[in-house]
Write a structure and sequence with these properties.
Elements (H helix, E strand, L loop, with lengths): L16 E4 L5 E7 L6 E5 L11 H8 L4 E5 L17 H8 L9 H15 L4 E6 L1 H12 L4 E7 L16 H5 L6 H15 L8 H13 L4 H12 L5 H4 L6 E6 L8 H9 L4 E5 L11 H15 L1
Length: 307
C-alpha cells in the first residue's frame, strides 16, 4: 500500500532504479526533476526508506529548479540487506555503553552516497540529511568535500555524547519489538510516531499508517535497523573535523525532539563556520508535511549561498 501524494505538474518523476556500487551493494534510488539541474541528494535516517522523504516534498523541492534524488540506505527498502552480519539487542546495549563494535559505520554509509553520485555521474550535490542521514551528510562534507555544494543537517548531531542525547522517555520506544506481522508493525510505528513526532504538527493517523505499511512492504528487516543503530552508537565525535567544513550550511532542529536533543543541532551549527541554525518550536523527531515549505526554503537558501 502506497500513500498517494500530490505531484507538481511540471516535475518529471523517475522510476525507481538501482545503482550497482563497486562494493557489491545495490542502492535503490529515484529522481525528480531535470537531471541537467543541480542535484539535491536526500539522505534518510535510521531504518527509514526513501519514501520517508515524501513525494510531495520531493516534487516541491524539484519545482524550485533542482534535480532531486532520494534513495534507500543499505539495509533499508529495496537496497541490499546485509543479513550475514548477525546482530542482537545485546550488541546495542554494549555499543551504548561504549564497548560494542558495528558491522559497518557511518563512514561506510557516506561511501554508499558517494558511490550513488558516481553512478549518476553527479560531480557534486547539495546534500540534505535527516537524523542519521544528517550524520552521514556531515561526513560527506568532511571526508568528500569536493562532492558537496551545500549541507543541510536536520534533527541531527555531531557525535559528541554530551549533546544530542536521547530522552529517557524515548528509550523504551526505540527498544520495543517492532511487531511480528505487517499489522503489528504498522500499529507499533503509529504509536512511536505519537511519542517521537511533532506535538505542534501532528501527522494524520491514516497517513502514518500508510507510510508504515509502505515501509514494511518495501523490505523492512529488524536486523537492518539494529545495524543502523550500531553505526550511530559507535560513531566518533566529529566536532573538531566539522570546523573545516566550508560549504554553506543550514542546520534545522525541533525544540521538542526526544530522540536527538536540540543541543545536537545547536552544537552542529556552532561547529561549522558560518552555519545558520533554524530552531522550530513544537517540532519533534519527524518531517511533518505542514513544514514542507519551511524545509524547502531553508534548503534552497543554502543552495543559493553556494552559488
Amino acid at each position: 500500500m502506497t500513500a498517494r501524494q500530490p505531484q507538481h505538474p511540471s516535475v518529471a518523476v523517475g522510476e525507481e532504479t538501482f545503482a550497482h556500487l563497486p562494493s557489491g551493494l545495490d542502492i535503490c534510488h529515484q529522481s525528480f526533476g531535470d537531471p541537467s539541474d543541480e542535484t539535491i541528494l536526500l539522505i534518510m535516517g535510521l531504518g527509514g526508506p526513501m519514501g520517508w522523504w515524501s513525494t510531495e516534498f520531493c516534487t516541491l523541492l524539484a519545482s524550485r529548479g533542482f534535480h532531486v534524488v532520494r534513495y534507500d540506505n543499505r539495509d533499508t527498502g529495496r537496497s541490499t540487506k546485509l543479513r550475514h552480519h548477525r546482530v542482537s539487542r545485546g550488541d546495542v546495549l554494549r555499543a551504548a555503553a561504549g564497548l560494542g563494535r558495528a558491522p559497518y559505520g557511518l563512514s561506510d554509509l557516506a561511501d554508499d552516497a558517494v558511490g550513488l553520485l558516481d553512478s549518476l555521474q553527479v560531480e557534486a550535490a547539495h546534500v540534505v540529511g535527516a537524523s542519521m542521514g544528517g550524520m552521514i551528510a556531515q561526513l560527506l562534507a568532511i571526508d568528500h568535500a569536493a562532492r558537496v555544494r551545500s549541507l543541510t543537517s536536520i534533527m541531527s548531531t555531531t557525535g559528541r555524547r554530551t549533546v544530542g542525547w536521547i530522552h529517557p522517555r524515548a528509550v523504551p520506544t526505540m527498544l520495543a519489538p517492532a511487531g511480528r506481522t505487517r499489522a503489528e508493525f504498522a500499529a507499533g510505528s503509529v504509536r512511536r510516531g505519537r511519542i517521537l513526532g511533532s506535538p505542534a504538527f501532528p501527522t494524520d493517523e491514516a497517513v502514518a499508517r500508510a507510510r508504515a505499511l509502505e515501509t514494511y512492504d518495501r523490505g523492512w528487516i529488524a536486523s537492518g535497523v539494529t545495524r543502523h543503530m550500531l553505526a550511530v552508537l559507535t560513531q566518533t565525535d566529529r566536532t573538531e573535523r566539522l570546523r573545516a567544513v566550508s560549504v554553506p550550511t543550514q542546520v534545522i532542529h525541533g525544540t521538542r525532539d526526544l530522540l536527538v536533543h536540540p543541543s545536537g543541532g545547536r552544537a552542529t551549527a556552532a561547529a561549522i563556520p558560518g552555519a545558520r541554525l533554524l530552531q522550530i518550536a513544537g517540532m519533534g523527531h519527524d518531517l511533518p508535511s505542514q513544514l514542507n515549505d519551511t524545509f524547502v526554503e531553508a534548503i534552497v537558501d543554502a543552495a543559493a549561498r553556494a552559488r
